[in-house]
Design goal:
- By secondary structure, the protein is an alpha+beta fold.
- The chain has helices at about 20-25, 50-60, 75-85, 105-115, 165-170, 180-190, 215-220, 220-240, 245-260, 270-290, 290-295, 300-310, 315-325, 365, 395, 500-510; strands at about 5-10, 35-45, 65-70, 90-95, 100, 120, 125, 140-145, 160, 195-200, 205-210, 330-335, 335-340, 370-380, 380-390, 400-405, 410, 410-415, 420-430, 440-450, 455-460, 470-475, 480-485, 495-500.
- The strands form 5 sheets. The chain has an 8-stranded mixed sheet with strand order 3-2-1-4-9-6-10-8, with helices on both faces. Strands 16, 17, 20, 21, 22, 23 and 24 form a 7-stranded antiparallel sheet that branches.
- Helix 8 packs antiparallel against helix 9 (about 245-260) and helix 8 packs parallel to helix 10.
- It is globular and about 75 Å long.
């Protein structure tokens, strides 16, 4: 019997009803079921997912293979079990709540064969406003490098891998990592690969944010995430020798996994947990956060990591409260150098180097930092956004100030300075927010654009300190869309654009109705 071209691996744990769409998208692939093998490992599901897998196995006995096992606590064990059974020339991993475009596997395999690629990425699309970093999908490329491309920002395992590469290096998932276990696998595959390719010509993979938000990544705890971040960093350090290549990968981990431990929700942790997180982050920063990484970090992450490295928990709390409760700190101008005036700057006891606070090369971005005062829908025509800068001299420094959401620029209504700052008001047209919105909707970050110092500074608006979500319903053709203003995990003002689907409507009704629907 001829080996299939591709084995699709999915680890399953309580993903109904999303699982049905996932499996349907696989068995209906244009590559044909004779070239396809699906191995699904049920990791002790209790919601009927196991029965649904068995149903597909009965319907497609030559294609769908199911393994049932007791719950292992994460996707690593089921993924490894499937890899032991895989027979395809290539292996593709899919989350059991996600789904593929109809031509995805056919296109991916054809590209891998054409270019002799060991790893192929196909463009990912977020569904239900799930955020997907898009930089790596800017264009189709036969050959990309892990160390000089945006690939480190797209390290999920949702890619096509040559199985011979996997077996040659014995690549497997670390089963002691409940979160992020796909990243060591993906990183090593990309380091070992002869060629990595990217396809940006089609929507290959639809990554779903569950409406019930029960994905393990959404609910994992700080100490658990800290341990996984420690495992990731030490893994990279062992795999890649110190230098620019290692820093290119670790930049992602310090910006994302590690900095996320120090976001505003850190304030709500118990003190013992706060102290342990600070100690863990300090050790990582002292061991691996080079000056090259530091200088490429966003200012908020940089200052918080500096607080953990050089200060203590109380100092870090003061820095976070500055952002979460007090607003944008002042800029300190010293000659031709600009610095962010966060707590700890030039504190003689902390002795944190000025470089951790410097914003000279991003001064325009700094003065573009505004706090949201309000965001109110004006019927179905526009969103009126009022924002505040702490700089009374903003109109003198900037030749123009604009607010926008994604690629939609609003009309500036007024820029009014006073003794303590400047108030900016702008209207963002709602109909244009629907342009380009995919079937799963999208999330648009509201940003300020400021023309100053010979360049244009851009910064996301801070969300209101006491956010009250606002909603508007727009019709385009026969479809309704819900637009919602809210704040994201970084505390930034965002507009969620989501089509009204029967599934979304039922999920909202279930949240609002008491048990029994009465």
């Amino acid at each position: 019997m001829t080996a299939p071209d591709v084995t699709v691996v999915t680890a399953v744990y309580n993903t109904m009803p999303y699982l049905t769409r996932c499996l349907t998208s696989l068995v209906e692939q244009t590559i044909g079921r004779d070239r396809l093998e699906v191995i699904a490992v049920d990791d002790g599901s209790t919601d009927g997912s196991g029965r649904e897998l068995d149903r597909f196995a009965r319907l497609y006995p030559g294609t769908v293979k199911v393994v049932h096992q007791p719950n292992s606590g994460g996707p690593a064990g089921p993924s490894n079990r499937a890899l032991e059974l895989a027979t395809g020339r290539y292996v593709f991993f899919i989350g059991s709540d996600d789904y593929l475009g109809p031509e995805a596997l056919e296109r991916l395999v054809a590209a891998a064969d054409r270019w002799d690629s060991d790893v192929v990425l196909g463009r990912l699309v977020g569904v239900n406003s799930r955020y997907i970093h898009q930089a790596i999908y800017a264009e189709t490329a036969a050959d990309v490098n892990l160390f000089d491309s945006p690939l480190p920002w797209s390290l999920s395992n949702t890619k096509l891998f040559r199985r011979e590469l996997i077996e040659r290096y014995g690549l497997r998932y670390p089963e002691d990592m409940p979160v992020g276990s796909d990243q060591p696998f993906t990183i090593e595959a990309c380091v070992r690969a002869r060629r990595i390719s990217v396809l940006a010509d089609y929507d290959y993979y639809f990554a779903v944010r569950r409406l019930n938000a029960r994905n393990i990544t959404y609910k994992s705890r700080h100490l658990e995430r800290l341990r996984c971040a420690e495992d990731l960093v030490t893994f990279v350090a062992k795999l890649i020798e110190a230098g620019p290549a290692r820093d290119a990968v670790l930049l992602r981990h310090f910006t994302w996994e590690i900095a996320k431990l120090l976001e505003n929700d850190f304030l709500r942790l118990e003190r013992d947990v706060q102290d342990r997180v600070v100690a863990g982050v300090r050790a990582l920063a002292e061991g691996y956060l080079t000056d090259r990484i530091r200088d490429r970090l966003p200012i908020e992450a940089r200052v918080r990591l500096a607080a953990a490295r050089y200060g203590d928990t109380d100092h870090l709390l003061a820095v976070i409260r500055q952002d979460a409760e007090l607003g944008i700190p002042p800029a300190v101008v010293d000659g031709d150098r600009w610095y962010a005036g966060y707590p700890g700057f030039r504190d003689p006891q902390l002795r944190i180097p000025d470089a951790w606070y410097e914003i000279t090369d991003a001064a325009a971005d700094w003065i573009a930092r505004l706090d949201t005062v309000s965001a109110a829908f004006e019927g179905t025509r526009a969103l009126l956004v009022t924002a505040r800068s702490p700089r009374p001299d903003l109109p003198e420094l900037a030749s123009a100030v604009r607010l926008g959401a994604g690629d939609v620029t609003g009309a500036t209504v007024s820029v009014v300075p006073d003794a303590t700052g400047t108030t900016v008001r702008a209207r963002i047209p709602l109909d244009r927010l629907l342009d380009g919105a995919g079937p799963g909707g999208e999330l648009r970050t509201v940003q300020a654009h400021v023309d100053a110092f010979g360049t244009t500074g851009v910064a996301a608006l801070r969300g209101a300190r006491r956010p009250v979500p606002q909603r508007a319903v727009l019709r385009r053709g026969a479809r309704l869309h819900v637009l919602t203003t809210t704040t994201n995990h970084k505390g930034q003002l965002v507009i969620a654009v989501a089509p009204v689907t029967p599934r979304r409507l039922m999920a909202r009704l279930r949240r609002r109705l008491p048990l029994g629907g009465k």
